[in-house]
Amino acid sequence: MIIDNKSLLLLSKNAPRWIAERRESAAKSFFNAPMPSEREEAWRYTTLGNMEIKSSSDALLKVSGKCATPMSAETEKLIPASAGEDKFDFFNNAFWTSGYSVVVPDNMDAGVIEARIGAGITRSVVVLGKNAKAEIVEYISGGSGVTSNFLYVVTGENAHASVYSVSDLASGVRDFSYKRAFLNSNSSVTWNVAQFGSALSRIKVDNHFNGEGSSSRVTGLFGASGLQHMDLTTNAFHNVPNTSCTMNIKGALKDSASHVYRGLIKIEKAAKNTSSYLSDHALALSKNASANSIPSLMIDNNDVKCGHSASVGNVDEEKLLYIMSRGLDRKSAENLIVEGFFSHMIASVPSEKMRSEFSRIVRERILC
Amino acid sequence: MEVAKEILDIKESYETKYGFSDPEKYSFKAKKGLSGEMVRQISAIKSEPEWMLDFRLRALKIFFSRPMPQWGPKLEIDFNNIFYYIKPVEKQGRSWDDVPKDIKSTFDKLGIPEAERKFLAGVGAQYESESVYHHIQKELGQQGVIFLDMDSGLRECPEIVKKHFGKIIPAGDNKFAALNSAVWSGGSFVYVPENVKVAMPLQAYFRINAKNMGQFERTLIITEPGSSVHYVEGCSAPSYSEDSLHAAVVEILAKENSRLRYTTIQNWSNNVYNLVTKRAHAHRNAVVEWIDGNLGSKITMKYPSVYLLGEGAKANIISIAYAGRGQHQDAGGKAVHMAKNTSSTILSKSISKDGGKTTYRGLLRVAKGATGVMSNVRCDALILDDTSSSDTVPYMDVAEKNVSITHEATVGKVSEETLFYLMSRGLKESDAMALVVRGFIEPFTKELPMEYAVELNRLVHMEMTGAVG
């Protein structure tokens, strides 16, 4: 698809008027907004330069499972507005071609919903009713040009969502995918996000804790090689009392790949008794790889337990030597350590199928 | 947590201890506001060489052309309503008897001459824009140690100053470094010759007295190979309702195998904007330590940094910040590793109370080729009540694989369990709280010269128990 006004008209054809108007105004904002620059805090270390957004691959979508339907004008309405939108929010909002929606009624366990997405411009939403449950598995692969695959999760009271979102993109792709959860009282969202492939990838995972007692666990994995640049952001916005969040990020970098991880815990004044932790660890496997890490805290009240830790390091020579002394060659020893580095995270993924999927991608993308 | 409100009011006694002011009897007071003409005037009064005037004028241009920082705390500074240069006396004193009575009694009240007698190797005292007293022990002078105010340094050691001035922090580094470069006056010039170890600390004390004063001291410290020195600076000002501005630049050149420790106890009154650029270059096997205590000021923005340029160089930054009512301490540290096998540790401890805000902002950078780097960054924030806040913004930028970098941060309040435990041992709640807070900042106090550590602990404790008694 070419990114221009003609495509916009085609997308709006036969659509309800309000959605056509929304696309139009988003497109206007998109065309008018300057390309984000490294001078902006949210884009530090990610250089877009004069990147042109000319075209995108047409998304392919296969979704199966209870309560799952393709995205429609009606379900698109369920997506909450989010503050702080940038050029790529407008991009997605204007040019999305498809997506899926999962609407689970109160008290229902929808089980596993699987979405296989050939990367393009997609927009998906998961809405859980009171006490509802669902496990979403999305696997995003392939693609060309500039892609953008958004996912919104809205949980009702005491609802529980698990999301496995794996990006395993084709090599030339530049991808800008934002994932956002809005949590009601006592609900929880578990995010497992993996970032692999592409030439440039920016994934952002936001949790908005809007209901008391809500909680989230975010597990992020990344692996980059060649000349890839990856940008991963995870944010926790604690707006009400008694919420908790744990974010664990791990990744490995090969060749001349670069990565920036940005994590923010923001605790509002009203959000008493918040507990929020963040840790991020990068493993540099080559001399030319570079890792940036910016884990920030913004804390506006004192009744909190909050912290973060971060590390960047390489494969420990002593460990290598030990393993090699057991008869393995250097490469296999290194691979073993890298697999070990990821294994703790992969083991925490509850679905057997997803575990083997993760392991396969790590093997293919990072080990050799 | 009611009691938290009543404790640790380090600032409460500020009024009587530091907040007094003297009548203004000055030998020269430049008009308010900033202009090329004023810069020429300062330079002329100081009879400076041509290159320094050029440097100042170039810097002024840079200052005017730069926008205010687009990040960090909001700065509302009226640059036209500031005195950029006030010369308090005609001549600097070599002994305290030469210093005018009013000014001497100010420094007496601040305990400077007493400290000098007891445990300092040299003292410099700056009042407004100029140094009023400077003295170094005779033996050190004989060994070639130079400890002068910056203006005298420029006059007496023109070659060394010209070679190094503005090289580590160029005028264009940031807007406030440019401002300092244009209107600088006073500060210290320290030169320690090869293999000379200065056993006792050198201290400089900076005092602002006038309303709407801007103080722009400029410090340059050079440690030759194998030498060592400990430099201590303190500062305070009267409490006025109008704002004052303090924008210093401190440049440090630590050559091979030398060791420098720079201790700051910043205790400006709550009407001072404290915007300071401090940077050290550490060459092979040199050790640079910033021990940075920020208690006072309205807004502080200060990130002492060390550029590790030679193999084996070490940086150690310990920073504490205390923010009470109306204060924002935006502090931290930077370590830039440019050479192999260099190491750094940054430890930051901050306490906020009564609506105060602390921010840790730091940078850890490892350049390509700098293998074998080890670095540990740790920041802990204690928020003592629910009107106060704390942010942590660390940057890590690593372009090399063979490194070991770790970072940790925690934010929280004093745990009820800890308090309860101490109280079960018979301590009052306020004493228990004081003990916890003292323990929290202990990594900082233990690095201070004993006399300062005792004073700081006494201050903390007196305020806590006094408030409850």
Question: Would you kindly provide a written description of the structure presented here, covering whatever features stand out?
Answer:
The complex is a heterodimer of chains A (368) and B (469). By secondary structure, chain A is α/β, with parallel strands linked by helices. Chain A has one domain (5-315). Chain A is 21% helix and 44% strand. Chain A is globular, with a radius of gyration of 20 Å. Helix content of chain B is 25%, strand content 35%. In chain B, the strands form three sheets. In chain B, strands 5, 6, 8, 9, 11, 12, 14, 16, 17, 19, 21 and 23 form a twelve-stranded mixed sheet that branches. Chain B is α/β, with parallel strands linked by helices and 469 residues long. The longest helix of chain B is centred in the last third of the chain and has 19 residues, at 450-468. Chain B has helices at residues 14-17, 36-45, 50-65, 101-109, 112-119, 138-142, 150-156, 158-164, 175-183, 416-424, 429-440, 442-445, 450-468, and strands at residues 28-29, 86-87, 122-127, 130-136, 146-149, 188-192, 202-207, 214-215, 218-223, 228-236, 244-246, 249-254, 259-266, 272-282, 287-294, 299-302, 305-308, 314-323, 328-337, 343-352, 357-366, 373-383, 389-398, 403-412. Chains A and B meet through β17 and β18 of A and β23 and β24 of B.
Which characteristics define this entry?
heterodimer; A: 368 residues; alpha/beta; nine-stranded mixed β-sheet; 18 strands; 44% strand; globular; B: 469 residues; twelve-stranded mixed β-sheet; ten-stranded mixed β-sheet; disordered C terminus
Helix content of chain B: 25-40%
Strand content of chain A: 35-45%
Overall geometry of chain A: globular
Q: How many beta-strand segments of chain B?
A: 24
* Spatial arrangement of strands, main beta sheet of chain A: 1-4-6-8-10-12-14-16-18
Q: Would you tell me the overall average pLDDT of chain B? A: 89
Query: Whole-number average pLDDT of chain A?
Result: 92
Radius of gyration of chain A: 20 Å
Strand content of chain B: 25-35%
Radius of gyration of chain B: 22 Å
Tally of DSSP helical segments of chain A:
7
Oligomeric form of this entry?
heterodimer
